[in-house]
Write a structure and sequence with these properties.
By secondary structure, this protein is an alpha+beta fold. It contains four helices and 13 strands. The protein has a domain of 121 residues. The strands form three sheets. Strands 4, 5, 6, 7, 8, 9, 12 and 13 form an eight-stranded antiparallel β-sheet that branches. Strands 1-2-3 form a three-stranded antiparallel β-sheet, with no helix packed on it. The protein starts with a helix and ends in a 20-residue tail after the last helix.
């Protein structure tokens, strides 16, 4: 009986699955897939609270959390990613508890919407309608590993400085080509993302730490990253932003 059970649980050879690749998925496109968000867990994140319904076993402050797979990454060890696309936006929100947890509106970085805001006592940029805006830097990446996967890293407030540093790293790379030096695509290099403890006069929290590892050496990975970048650029992939601030947190973090 045990032998039969073992045979039943054995994995089928990959070549059998390969023969039927893609079948059963119908006409699923990128717009039908949830793009995971990578976020840093804080002291007040529901995922680290054992009494919260969103608690994730083993979750601790400073870890990196995948919002779709539920996977946890050690913040000290970090993860390796290939940055594929960057977008800067102004996202309009209602105060926590007043909205549906989704943006009221999203404005392109070229918009003059910020000129219509005034800072409130909590340093939030308020619109005349009472909603507030968050300047948001979105980094679309591929997480490297045994099964590379796409994700989005959303940087706001104090993390905008980290975003600018990362952008400077990418734009500062120069390679020698047939016509002289050139700046390669963002997805030409691999970066290490870790978390680090930060603080100011408002409190202490965990933020991102970015360092460059080296160039992409696998052709298939480069092509995957290029395709992902092109799909975002032409609007085939859209991120569904959600309010991820735990109750009691503030925007200056």
């Amino acid at each position: 009986m045990n032998e039969v059970q073992k045979k039943t649980n054995a994995s089928l050879p990959a070549n059998i699955f390969e023969q039927d690749m893609g079948k059963g998925l119908g006409n699923i496109g990128q717009q039908d897939l949830a793009l995971p968000f990578l976020k840093i867990l804080g002291q007040l994140s529901p995922e680290v609270n054992e009494r919260d319904g969103k608690y994730v076993k083993g979750a601790k402050p400073g870890m990196i959390f995948n919002s779709v797979t539920g996977e946890l990454h050690d913040g000290v060890e970090g993860i390796n990613v290939v940055p594929c696309f960057y977008r800067l936006e102004y996202i309009e929100w209602k105060d926590r508890g007043e909205g549906l947890g989704a943006p009221v509106a999203i404005y392109d970085s070229s918009s003059d919407i910020m000129s219509k805001t005034k800072p409130d006592a909590n340093y939030k940029d308020r619109l005349p309608n009472g909603n507030y805006l968050e300047k948001t830097a979105s980094h679309f990446v591929i997480i490297l590993g045994d099964s590379p996967s796409t994700a989005l890293i959303s940087m706001k407030s104090t993390q905008l400085k980290i975003s600018r540093k990362w952008n400077s790293m990418m734009s500062g790379i120069k390679l020698k080509g047939k016509d002289g030096l050139f700046t390669p695509a963002s997805f030409s290099h691999i970066y290490k993302l870790k978390t680090t403890q930060m603080s100011n006069d408002k409190g202490t929290w965990f933020g991102w730490e970015v360092s460059k590892l080296g160039p992409v050496t696998d052709t298939a990975m480069y092509q995957q990253a290029k395709t992902f970048s092109e799909n975002i650029s032409k609007g085939s992939i859209k991120a569904k932003h959600g309010a991820d601030k735990p109750k009691g947190s503030d925007s200056h973090f």
